[in-house]
Structures are given as structure tokens and as C-alpha cells.
Amino acid sequence: xxxxxxxxxxxxxxxxxxxxxxxxxxxxxxxxxxxxxxxxxxxxxxxxxxxxxxxxxxxxxxxxxxxxxxxxxxxxxxxxxxxxxxxxxxxxxxxxxxxxxxxxxxxxxxxxxxxxxxxxxxxxxxxxxxxxxxxxxxxxx
Length: 141
Fold this sequence. Notes:
It contains six helices and no strands. By secondary structure, the protein is an all-alpha fold.
């Protein structure tokens, strides 16, 4: 009987793919949104949208934490799932309350794409090439 040759993944495994996805999406989010919130912290603190009515400062602090701190954590692969959960919530609020689920608007579409990416990272975790994996391996030794 003839064996069917399997087509192997040219990357070797999906851990490299999740690394590229983590680094690309998280760094893009940080550069465009996280860094902006760091630079304009004082101004944005008191002039920020409050879609879920928790107050402008709290809304800003949550967005600041998710867009800057959590994006850097995800890029590093540290507390990846927890950081992704914060980002997913923030992106969901932005998509539903600020962009009204409008995929026809370029900004609404971008928020949706980020949302899908970080939902996947939330489900998948950081992968083998992450600080989370290194900490887990060190703990098991």
C-alpha cells in the first residue's frame, strides 16, 4: 500500500506563528494607541469617552492599562491570557459602544480585527516562545 506523504508546516509548528501574531498585533496596538495614551496622559485623563458610564478617568485608566501595559505584556508573552482578557473587554466596549458594531467604518473594522486576534490569543495563550512558557518550564523542573 502506498503511503500518502503529509505536507509539513514550513514553520515547524504553530508556536512561531503565535509569536509573530503576538508581536505584530500587540506592538501595533501599543505604537498606535498605547504610546498615545502615555504621551497625552494628563490631557486624555479628563477628556476621554465614557461609553459604559464609569467616569472619564476610570474609562481612560482602563483603556490606558489595556492599550499600553497589556499590549506590552502580550508582546513579551507574560500573563498573556490575562492581558488578552483585558484587551478583549476594552476592544469589545469600543466596538459595541463607540463604533456601534460598524464594520463599514475603517476604524470599526480595525477594532474588530484586533478583537478577533486577541480573542484567539486569549484562547491559545502565548505559545512556546513566551515568558509564560519559560516560567512554566522552570516551575516544572
